[in-house]
Amino acid sequence: MPDTAAIPVLTIDGPSGSGKGTISRAVAGRLGWHYLDSGALYRAIGVAAGWADLDLADPAALVRCAFDTEIGFREADGEPRVIVNGVDATDELRTETAGAAASAIAAIPEVRFALKERQRAFRRAPGLVADGRDMGTVIFPDAGRKVFLTASAEERAERRYKQLKDKGVSVTLDGLLREILARDARDASRAVAPLRPADDAVRIDTTGLGIETVVDRVLALMEP
Ligand SMILES: Nc1ncnc2c1ncn2[C@@H]1O[C@H](COP(=O)(O)OP(=O)(O)O)[C@@H](O)[C@H]1O
Ligand SMILES: Nc1ccn([C@H]2C[C@H](O)[C@@H](COP(=O)(O)OP(=O)(O)O)O2)c(=O)n1
């Protein structure tokens, strides 16, 4: 295992729709750093488990699935794509069904353990921006900068509503708000690596803030 401790890491954690993916990608682009979308790993395991018809109540099968599933990230026409066992699963991964399955399997401690080293392997020079729920608390506790993004549940549901509508997915605002609240509750109440800010994280409430403002605030934290 190469010693990667000297490679800088910025962690960006927070609940669904707080803007982690958008802000992390933009900041990684501006810094020229690598990017880890840890949620995509949990979503990919959930989707692969569905393809294999695994029982979401069978932890042993899900852990095998977490170790065996091949997950690759690539860009096509400037858009990030996620390849699961050789199949481009990007669109399926972004559905709320995949998000709920990811949140359910993410509560299994052995599944989290199975993904630990895979996530740490993303720490490569010149640096890494890591987005998720436990990047600052569990996966990269030694990160030099940690951010915890929040926004009101209503605003997060509205952002998701717009995002899915733009993709032509039929959803209701009420339904999304319910799903977001249910996922927040499950992610924050699980016994292992619950959603919570690291003690040394800077919290940014993005309610009412535009994307560029949040990107600038995070970049300002990176100044020496
Ligand atoms: N500060 C912000 N203001 C308004 N919209 C935002 C903001 N941050 C993100 N968004 C939009 O909200 C949606 C969800 O953001 P996303 O990055 O997918 O959140 P997360 O990864 O936390 O679930 C996207 O369509 C994104 O463009
Ligand atoms: N580091 C992580 C990332 C995601 N998860 C789980 C919990 C989340 O509800 C699901 C999906 O995460 P993802 O970040 O893709 O979801 P959102 O974009 O925030 O809606 O995976 C986790 O437990 N730990």
Automatic annotation (TrEMBL):
Limits of the Cytidylate kinase domain: 11-222
Known catalytic reactions: dCMP + ATP = dCDP + ADP; CMP + ATP = CDP + ADP
Identification of the protein by name: Cytidylate kinase
Keywords, sorted A to Z: ATP-binding, Cytoplasm, Kinase, Nucleotide-binding, Transferase
The enzyme's E.C. designation: 2.7.4.25
Gene3D superfamilies: P-loop containing nucleotide triphosphate hydrolases
Major subcellular location class: cytoplasm
Binding site for ATP: G14, P15, S16, G17, S18, G19, K20, G21, T22
The gene coding this protein: cmk
Subcellular location: Cytoplasm
InterPro entries (alphabetical): Cytidylate_kin, Cytidylate_kinase_dom, P-loop_NTPase
Claim: Isomerase is one of the keywords in the record: no
Family: Belongs to the cytidylate kinase family. Type 1 subfamily.
Pfam family, one: Cytidylate_kin
GO molecular function, one term: kinase activity
